[in-house]
Amino acid sequence: MAGKITNTKGFTLVEIVVTLAIGAILMGAAMVAYKQISTVHVIQTDLDKMITFLQDKRLKAFTQKTPIIITVATNQLTNDLDTDLVDMNNDFTGSAGTFTINSRGLFNVGGFIRLTTPITEYSCINIANSSVREGKWNVATSSCDAK
């Protein structure tokens, strides 16, 4: 056996290609999961901003004893009292183009603001006479069921 040389160090080209293929598949799956988580986070942030805005305007209407009209645009909420507005990253629609908060801090008409294309479980805001709550969009009844 004097002339036989055995080389057991290193990896073959096939082993390297298989390892890279498995790594690429795992990275692809991770990117899909990350994109979904990121989308849900952005929607949740929009909902939280809108709820905070609506609750703040209810408080202002009550403390200043003046009615406030909230206007729902595609990706923005505005009001007629001041220059405050909420810019949203997603498109939302309301059951009404405007919601009025009376001088006692109550909504004159209930309704909802919902994500135009519901993606997540909680994708709407239920507006009742005296409350603003996040909710689930009910396709069967075309309404927002509060949490």
TrEMBL record:
Kindly name one Pfam family recorded for this protein.
Answer: N_methyl
Q: InterPro entries this protein is in?
A: N_methyl_site, Pilin-like
Q: Which UniProt keywords apply?
A: Membrane, Transmembrane, Transmembrane helix
Q: Which SUPFAM superfamilies match?
A: Pili subunits
Keyword Protein biosynthesis in the entry? The reply is: no
Which residue ranges does UniProt annotate as crossing the membrane? 12-34
Q: What is this protein called?
A: Prepilin-type N-terminal cleavage/methylation domain-containing protein
Q: Which organism is it from?
A: Desulfocapsa sulfexigens (strain DSM 10523 / SB164P1)
Q: What is the lineage of its organism?
A: Bacteria, Pseudomonadati, Thermodesulfobacteriota, Desulfobulbia, Desulfobulbales
